[in-house]
């Protein structure tokens, strides 16, 4: 691949996805991921364009750093670090400073590191490959694309907490996340469903991290995540919206340290905490345990309730879109959510839902779609644009 390769990295909470593009082409040359991080047997799978046979490599360790090492090793063996012309990275938190993609230098990287405490499951793993590539290829142009950026133009009222003004002014705001995913969905809607895209749409990004975005005319109006990616829906291991009084009580009355509370809320709550079995929806669906069913029911109930809140923010709703791991592949959860939204005029076509079809609703009811998230293509587009790559 001469010296025209564009590397895209997307570290999520349970997976690292990557893609290699020829710098002028829309379709990725290679796509791969390490899934199951934090589990027992993570595997690096890579697929070349046009092939339906991925290659798989088992990894000895299940953490993000081992996955990044394996991935950079694969890249050197199959593409060559010297063939890279640029790299684009998902960076989860851009704070108040970054509402657009930015070219990374030492100073930018230092600023982004200061946001690591606001996204402990993501930011360090977003920044680690940037540092490693800086060492391997100091002159390589690298671009950071932010999960928070898509939401920065929301109405001001949607970005505020009801805290003393001085804290709002210091940047304690509802930033929102999964913005690269929402940006890509907004674009897909504009291309394939233009009249719906112009209206009021709730997009449900339900993966290991989960959030909702209410869009009008393709732009974010409100979202379920806040200052950090803990807020909103229950997730694989994260609690979602929680009375802040619980945090105070755990620290002041139960004697937990701030670090212990952080560990509980980020890593031992959500589907894993309620089920006691797994953070992965696939395991809960297989399980006969009542606690697994309760975790699934709570996930669907909270999601439906939060959708109701976004419908109010949008002043009504014209359509609903599901995306990400659970949203794209889990009919049971989509059914449980949509059943609680029948009062809004949503009704699933059972067969379409069971088959994970793109268009899921019955005739004469409001549209429900499943669209695949593709954060890597959004990052590639942003990186090319910023660096003016042909
Ligand atoms: N076939 C499936 N059925 C149910 N849930 C699924 C399926 N495939 C993936 N998932 C869920 O999606 C999650 C991963 O979503 P993804 O968006 O890829 O994760 P990340 O948040 O790490 O980017 C898994 O933890 C699992 O809960
Ligand atoms: C922000 C976030 O939760 O991302 P992910 O779903 O990739 O973990
Ligand atoms: Mg993700």
TrEMBL record:
Enzyme class: transferase
This protein's name: Acetate kinase
GO molecular function terms listed in the Swiss-Prot or TrEMBL record: acetate kinase activity
UniProt cofactor note: Mg(2+). Can also accept Mn(2+).
NCBIfam families hit by this protein: ackA
Source organism, top-level taxon: Bacteria
Organism: Natronospira proteinivora
Function, in words: Catalyzes the formation of acetyl phosphate from acetate and ATP. Can also catalyze the reverse reaction.
């Amino acid at each position: 691949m001469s010296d025209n390769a564009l590397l895209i990295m997307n570290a999520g909470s349970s997976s690292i996805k990557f893609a290699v593009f020829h710098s002028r082409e829309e379709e990725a040359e290679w796509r791969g991921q390490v899934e199951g991080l934090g589990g027992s047997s993570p595997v690096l799978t890579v697929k070349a364009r046009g092939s339906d046979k991925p290659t798989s490599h088992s990894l000895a360790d299940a953490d993000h750093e081992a996955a990044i090492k394996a991935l950079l090793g694969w890249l050197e063996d199959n593409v060559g670090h010297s063939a890279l012309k640029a790299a684009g990275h998902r960076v989860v938190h851009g704070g108040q400073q970054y509402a657009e993609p930015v070219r990374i230098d030492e100073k930018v990287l230092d600023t982004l590191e200061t946001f690591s405490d606001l996204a402990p499951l993501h930011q360090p793993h977003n920044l680690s490959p940037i540092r490693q590539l800086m060492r391997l290829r100091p002159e390589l142009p690298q671009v950071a694309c932010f999960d928070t950026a898509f939401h920065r133009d929301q109405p001001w009222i949607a970005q505020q907490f009801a805290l003393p003004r001085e804290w709002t002014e210091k940047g304690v705001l509802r930033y929102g996340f999964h913005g690269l995913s929402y940006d890509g969905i907004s674009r897909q809607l504009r291309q394939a469903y233009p009249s719906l895209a112009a209206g009021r749409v709730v997009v449900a990004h339900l993966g290991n991290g989960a959030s909702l975005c209410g869009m009008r005319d393709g732009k974010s109006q409100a979202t379920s995540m806040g200052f950090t990616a803990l807020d909103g829906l229950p997730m694989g291991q994260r609690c979602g919206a929680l009375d802040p009084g619980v945090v105070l009580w755990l620290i002041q009355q139960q004697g937990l340290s701030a670090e212990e509370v952080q560990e509980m809320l980020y890593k031992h709550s959500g589907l894993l905490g309620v089920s006691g079995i797994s953070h992965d929806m696939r395991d809960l669906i297989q399980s006969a345990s009542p606690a697994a069913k309760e975790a699934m029911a709570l996930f669907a109930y909270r999601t439906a309730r939060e959708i109701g809140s976004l419908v109010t923010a949008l002043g009504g709703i014209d359509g609903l879109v599901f995306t990400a791991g659970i949203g794209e592949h889990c009919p049971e959860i989509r059914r449980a959510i949509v059943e609680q939204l029948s009062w809004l005029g949503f009704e699933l076509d059972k067969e379409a839902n069971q088959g994970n079809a793109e268009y899921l609703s019955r005739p004469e009811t409001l549209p429900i779609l499943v669209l695949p998230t593709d954060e890597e293509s959004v990052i590639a587009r942003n990186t090319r644009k910023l660096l003016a790559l042909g």
